[in-house]
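Support request, priority: normal
Reporter: lab tech (M.K.)
Component: structure prediction queue

Hi team, I submitted a job for Chromosome partitioning protein ParB from Sphingobium baderi yesterday, and the status page still shows it as pending. I've pasted the exact input below so you can check whether something in the sequence is tripping the parser. The sequence length should be 86 residues. Please let me know if I need to resubmit or if it's stuck on your end.
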Amino acid sequence: MSGQSKIPRRFAARPRGAEAWVSAGGGERIEQPPRSANTARLTIDVTPELRKRIKFAALQRGLTLADLLRAMLAEAFPDDEQESAP
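Reply from support: The job had stalled in the queue. We restarted it manually and it finished. Here are the results:
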């Protein structure tokens, strides 16, 4: 016997395209990335259409939605030290 289980393997279906993936909405990453002790969670309400546009923009840039929003917020609200730099 080969030692393999008799349970059939199931693979997640690939999205048909970026538009289908963005529209699906579900299936967010279950495993959370490690966070440092100096992080805080921020929750905002957005329309489904705005969420779709943001998610699509992140996909086009090869980023996660969270990473895109962190970068945008960091750019909009720089550290005081960075602001005074020439």
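The first helix runs from residue 18 to 24. The mean pLDDT is 77. Let us know if anything else looks off. Ticket resolved.
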